[in-house]
Design goal:
By secondary structure, the protein is mainly alpha-helical. The chain is 76% helix and 3% strand. The mean pLDDT is 90.
Length: 257
C-alpha cells in the first residue's frame, strides 16, 4: 500500500491528529502549570467517562463517580506529588470495601485506569518540566505512527489476537523509529545512554497501553471507546499509549537519574 493511499483513506484521522498536535504544542509553548493541569483534566474527565462505559458501570453511579474524579483532580492541583494520590484512593476504596463488605469493586477500576496514569502525567510535568512531556509525546506518537505505516506497508504477522490489525513488523518498526527520535528528544534532559533506555522502555510501554485499551474494548464488545474524535473514536482511543508510557517514563527517570 502506498503512502498516498494511506493518507487518502484516513484523511479524517490525520486531520484530527494534526489539530490535536497543534493544540498540545501551543499549550506546551506557554508552559504554565495551571494550563497543563486544566488541559490534562479535560482529557482525563472525558477518558474517565469512557472508562466507566468500558468497565460496564451503570448510569446511576456516573454522577457520583464523576464528582469523585473531579475532586481527585482538584486535589492534584495543590498537592505537591500528584501521583501519590493514587495510593490514597486505593486506601480509601479498600477501607470502604472492608467496612461495607458489599461494595461494587468495579467502581475502583476507573480510578486505577485511567486516573492513576493522568496523575503520573501531571507528576511528569511537575517533576521534570515540559521537556519531559515533549519527549513523551515524541516517543508515543512516533511509536503509533511508525507502527501504522510500517504495518500497512510491510506487516505480515499478527502481533496479538487482542488487536488483529497490529503486526509484529509494524510494532518493531514503530519502536525502532520512536527510540531513535526519542534519543534526540531526551538528550536535552539526560545523558545519551539514559535517553536511549528510557525512550525504548517508554515506546514498548505505549504499545501495551494501546493493546490494553483494545482488550477492554473487546471485553465490552465495542469498536471504539467513544465517538468524540473523528477518525480516532473516543478520547481513550487517542491517549491509550500515553497512559502506560507516562507511568513508565516517570519511574525510569526517577530510577535512572
Amino acid at each position: 500500500m502506498s503512502l498516498f493511499s494511506i493518507f487518502s483513506e484516513n484523511r479524517a484521522r490525520f486531520l484530527t491528529g494534526a489539530i490535536l498536535a497543534a493544540v498540545v504544542v501551543a499549550i506546551g509553548l506557554i508552559d504554565n502549570f495551571f494550563l497543563i493541569w486544566l488541559f490534562l483534566g479535560v482529557v482525563y474527565l472525558f477518558s474517565f467517562y469512557e472508562a466507566m462505559r468500558l468497565f460496564g458501570i451503570d448510569d446511576e453511579s456516573h454522577n457520583q463517580m464523576y464528582a469523585y474524579a473531579a475532586a481527585v483532580w482538584l486535589l492534584a492541583l495543590v498537592y505537591p506529588n500528584p501521583d501519590d494520590l493514587f495510593f490514597l484512593i486505593a486506601v480509601v476504596f479498600a477501607s470502604i470495601l472492608a467496612y461495607t463488605r458489599n461494595f461494587d469493586k468495579r467502581l475502583f477500576l476507573p480510578f486505577l485506569y485511567p486516573t492513576a496514569s493522568f496523575l503520573f502525567l501531571l507528576a511528569l510535568y511537575d517533576d521534570f518540566s515540559v521537556n519531559a512531556l515533549f519527549w513523551l509525546l515524541v516517543v508515543v506518537a512516533l511509536t503509533d505512527i511508525g507502527a501504522y505505516f510500517v504495518g500497512k506497508m510491510a506487516g505480515k504477522r499478527q502481533f496479538s489476537p487482542t488487536s488483529p490489525n497490529k503486526t509484529i513488523e509494524g510494532v518493531i518498526g514503530g519502536v525502532v523509529i520512536a527510540t531513535f527520535a526519542g534519543f534526540f528528544a531526551g538528550s536535552v534532559l539526560v545523558d545519551w545512554p539514559q535517553a536511549l533506555i528510557i525512550s525504548f522502555g517508554v515506546s514498548v510501554a505505549s504499545v501495551f497501553g494501546d493493546l490494553f485499551e483494545s482488550y477492554l474494548k473487546r471485553e465490552a464488545g465495542v469498536k471504539d471507546s467513544g465517538n468524540l474524535l473523528p477518525g480516532h473514536g473516543g478520547m481513550l482511543d487517542r491517549v491509550d499509549g500515553y497512559l502506560f508510557a507516562g507511568i513508565v517514563m516517570v519511574l525510569l527517570l526517577r530510577g535512572l537519574l
